[in-house]
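REQUEST FORM: STRUCTURE PREDICTION
Request ID: SP-0412
Submitted by: Lab K.M.
Chain count: 1
Length (residues): 230
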Amino acid sequence: MLTLFHYPMNAGSRFIRLLLTEYSVPFTLIEETPWVRRREFLQLNPAGSVPVLLAESDQPVAGTMTICEYIDETRGSMSRDKRLMPSDVFGRAEARRLTSWYLDKCENEVTRHMVRERVTRPLMPTEKGGGSPDAGALRAARSNITQHLKYTNYLAGTRNWLSGDKLTIADLAAGATLSILDYLGELDWSGHEAAREWYARVKSRPSFRPLLQERVRGLPPSAHYADPDF
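STATUS: Completed
RESULT:
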């Protein structure tokens, strides 16, 4: 069985969990606290970042997109019409582009700052950078949320799914990223009805259920977080 080293409020970790579950791949989870930098974990991934997949023969596969490509090659290619990577070259390019939009651009502009200031900083020891949230960092991150909701709304309003006619890795990446902001109550869906309807479809999928049931210690989710019909 595969083993996934993850952090619950890390978008890449959530994305890989969704991907594995969509393909019905059994796996076990090991939570890795990002700032601890365990020696055993660093031997698997010297970068010290999650997610890391311990694959067959205990071979570590590190990095979100590296893991995604590994899963597609070993599981997705055998899934035929249920494959989450489009069959045509331009479809794959668009799915990868949007996956990067959410896991890289939205992560760097919004999500990681929200998680650091609201989730991890209060838990971290002072010598590791812990303490009270940085109001300026939160303000800057919040100012970037609207553009990502607008873009999601545009995509959802002009396509059946974000990258085209079928569910792809792009939808899982977007869902993984936005679900963290949704947990924190940072998303205002008013005026973004297409995005809201798309997100309701994504989080209604069985693969999302484990994520919606999890809770961060000392930080309850927004009232509608676990409700697919919010």
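NOTES: The mean pLDDT is 95.
Reviewed by: T.R.
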